[in-house]
Amino acid sequence: MRTDFAFVGVMLVTAALLMGVTLIAASFLRPKKPNKAKLDTYECGMTTVGDTWVQFRVQYYVLALVFVLFDIEAILLFPIAVAFNSLTLFAVLNVVLFIIVLLIALLYAWRKGALEWE
Amino acid sequence: MDVISNLLKILSDFVADLIRSILGFSPFLADLVTMGLAAVVLITFAALSFMGLTYVERKVVARIQDRVGPNQAGPFGLLQPLADGIKMFTKEDTTPASADRWVYNLAPLVIAVFALASFAVIPLAPGVVGTDLNVGVFYLLAIGSGSIIAILMAGWGSNNKYALLGAFRTVAQLVGYEVPMLLNIIAVVLIAGSMSLIDIINHQTLADGNPGIPHIVYLPLAALVFLISGIAETARSPFDLLEAESEIVAGFHVEYSGMKFALFFLGEYVNALAVSLVFTVLFLGGYAGPILPPYVWMLLKAAVVIFIFMWLRGTLPRVRIDQMHALNWKFLVPMSTVNLILVMIAVKLFPTSEAAARAFGGILVTPAAQALILFTLNIIVLLVSLSLASRAARKQRLAEAELLERRRAANMAAVAP
Amino acid sequence: MTIQQVVFAVLAVAVIGAALFVVTTGNLFRGALMLILVFFGMAGFYVLLDNGLFAVAQVMIYIGAISILIIFAVMLTRGMQAMIPRNAQATGAAVAAAALFVAIFLAFGPLRLTVDFSAVPVLSALFRTETARTLGDVPWQYANQPVPETYIADFGRALVNINQYLLPFLLIAFLVDAVLAGAVHLARQRKPAELIAERREIAEEEAEEAAALRGAASPEPLPQGAMAATTTQDH
User: Fold this and answer.
1) How far is C231 from chain B (nearest CA, A)?
2) What residues of chain B, 314 to 373, have a C-beta less than 8 Å from chain A?
3) Cα of C53 to nearest chain A Cα, Å
4) Per-residue confidence at B375, pLDDT binned at 50, 70, 90?
């Protein structure tokens, strides 16, 4: 299994090297004449006002949390799906219960308006 | 063994043997060189497909919209990708003075690397695969989270309001649409009984190598939802809210130019290619097919999926952000969850293998019968969901119309003397 | 040195370096990015332990979900550019961490210093075993056994086996439900009256704090955001 993943490591390193080389090669070929206006933050010709890193709506956080919920569901369901043929009906019903409990969480968030996006 | 149908396998075996014989003194070094070479080949394949895809996409979308598309560079504009490449390569590349330099410059590299890494597990022909992980599809889903981080890096590093806003929108979209994708992949894994992409293809192939029943017949609903969420995951039209020019300019990569921009573009197209290849593997039987060699089948099927992507891009208008979230959380996710539950129970009640039947009684059926049962179930779930959704939509429209009417009446009353 | 040891060493150095960066940086976003590197390194350790499933799950949950949650939370805070990366507990925490490291190194490192549990009063009460347990001499049950080929399916079966992990498996669902309910409650749309009352409360608290501070020694001035507003220039 370690050997299976070795290729993933090689792939990541090779991709990083190749892409890095293209970036560096391009940096030798391209012109480089920076000036103040060019290095300015782009905002359709306007001058930026205030801090960029403004506060964001809390809704993003709730959506990410709902995502975590389903992510956890998924990583637990994947091994169960692999083992599915050897499970008893009782086990399957428990899995269904697990999914329904999570579905209730989604419905709760829905009902409370956490999924609305205005 | 037919030489043509196994061309890729024979070639790769030959090269691997060659390397082993040259570097015979060190098996470790030989393995490393073989793997490195395989990685280079896969990356080149992805990069070349990226160049080809940009041309094909522009041509196809142009035809759909009654335009000509690129036609200046070379015959039929065929050299357009090359010209684009040269332009990107030699274009001046600025880093905004107020950017977080490290984060800003690393973001395109990260997105390209993680997009290319998905090709490590996708089988292109029998025996031609980077590595057959036993957690294959799971790996693909996990590697996708790398691009999410890269998008956040780009948005933050640019120190630009549009970029940050675009990054946040994109991330909310990507994580949202990952959920229906996950749920439907679980349904596929459930039927195939393995997460390895090769095992999933084998499940759609008969014992004699001929194509069996593809999973799209077992799970048409899952295939449909996977396609929709795949388009959203690659942020293509109609889900290209991150590029809503009228609202947030070009989204998270507004500050990027030159080669760094090209890497974002590469990431986008390589992801689209990967999604279509994965769709082929999961639902269309992968490389299994009659007469033509397997790699041709694989690419042909993937090309059909990509054509559907382009078709949708050429015809559909962009959805609004609230519609995008509502479609996902209020329609796709509940529908997929219910579908998954029903598929679980149906597969348990009507198993196809002796072992499964032994674990729990059930009624032993042939794969065709199981496919028929699941197909019916899927279609029923789809129809019920659609009718529920349309009823809810009608109710909402009526409520909105009533509100409007009441407001108008109030206005009239206020205006009247 | 085998290739696995080399990979382990590289991963370990990367993880420790990134972790140190996380706790010492004042820039919350960069800290979050380095935390992602730590998570990635942990996935590498799982691969070295021959458990691809956990490696991939680690990447998916911690990088794909938790990190995004952390970054979103970072974005909800003000002044994330220049946080002061220490507080009153920093020294104590550093000492505790160092002590723990020394203890682990002595017990499981090359020295294998052993401590007889039965001789230490507190430990003997905590780990009441028939035989005297010795730290650093743990009978790891699966230490030298290869991971079976079918480990994914085994894990899946164990999750829904009533004699193994069925209860925790179901409890996870309820736990996650509770977490979501809490978040939805905190992020709910407040009514205007509610908001005004809340703001007044916060303002009162701040006034109290300010009064308390004025009484005490003048506090250290907070460093201003490192990033000034971008240069003003006409195009």
Assistant:
1) 9
2) 321-322, 325-326, 329-330, 333-334, 337-338, 340-341, 344-345, 347-348, 351, 353, 355-356, 359-361
3) 9
4) very high
ipTM value of the model? 0.89
Contacts 24+ apart (CB under 8 A), B27-34: B28/C3, B31/A6, B32/A10
Q: Which two tokens stand for residue A25?
A: 């090669």
Amino acid type, C60: M
Cβ atoms B115, B274 nearer than 8 A: yes
Q: Would you give the end-to-end CA distance of chain C in angstroms?
A: 60
Residue type, B231: I
Average pLDDT over residues C143-155: 83
- Partners of residue B341 in chain A, C-beta under 8 Å: 96, 99-100
Asked if B171 lies within 8 A of C68 by C-beta distance, the reply is yes
For chain C, the domains span: 1-85, 86-147, 192-234
Comparing B314-318, C68-72, C131-135, C142-146, the range with the smallest average pLDDT is C131-135
SS (H, E, C) chain B: CCCCCCHHHHHHHHHHHHHHHHCCCCHHHHHHHHHHHHHHHHHHHHHHHHHHHHHHHHHHHHHHCCCCCCCCCCHHHCCHHHHHHHHHHHCCCCCCCCCCHHHHHHHHHHHHHHHHHHHHCCCCECCECCCCCCCHHHHHHHHHHHHHHHHHHHHHHCCCHHHHHHHHHHHHHHHHHHHHHHHHHHHHHHHHCCCCHHHHHHHCECCCCCECCCHHHHCHHHHHHHHHHHHHHCCCCCCCHHHCHHHHCCHHHCCCCHHHHHHHHHHHHHHHHHHHHHHHHHHCCCCCCCCCCHHHHHHHHHHHHHHHHHHHHHHCCCCCHHHHHHHHHHHHHHHHHHHHHHHHHHHHHCCCCHHHHHHCCCCCCCHHHHHHHHHHHHHHHHHHHHHHHHHHHHHHHHHHHHHHHHHHHHHHHHHCC
For residues B329 and A96, what is the distance between their CA atoms, to the nearest angstrom?
A: 20
Q: Please give the Cα distance from B23 to B8 (Å, whole number).
A: 22
Q: H-helix or E-strand containing C116?
A: strand C115-116
Asked if the model's pLDDT at residue C229 lies above 50, the reply is no
Residues of B in contact with A21 (CB under 8 A): none
Dihedral pair phi/psi, residue C141, rounded to 5°: -70, -40
Burial of A116 per CB tally in 10 Å (0-12, 13-18, 19+)? middle
CATH topology of domain C1-85: Four Helix Bundle (Hemerythrin (Met), subunit A) (1.20.120)
How much is the pTM?
A: 0.86
CA-to-CA distance for A105 and B329, rounded, in angstroms?
A: 12
Judged against a pLDDT cut of 50, whether residue C223 lies above it is answered with: no
Alpha-carbon span B78 to C93, nearest angstrom? 63
CA nearest to A111 within chain C: C184
* Strand partners of residue B125: B128
d(CA C14, CA C34): 10
Distance between CA B146 and CA C208 in Å, rounded? 45
Name the residue of chain B whose CA is nearest to C228's CA. Answer: B98
Distance of alpha carbon C49 from alpha carbon C214, whole angstroms: 56
pLDDT tens digits for range A21-69: 988 888 888 887 777 777 777 666 666 666 666 666 777 888 888 888 8
Structure-token pair, residue A108: 């709760």
Collect all residues of chain A within an 8 Å Cβ-Cβ radius of residue B121: 8
Closest CB to A82 among C69, C156, C183? C156
Chain B environment of A71 (Cβ under 8 Å): 178-179, 182
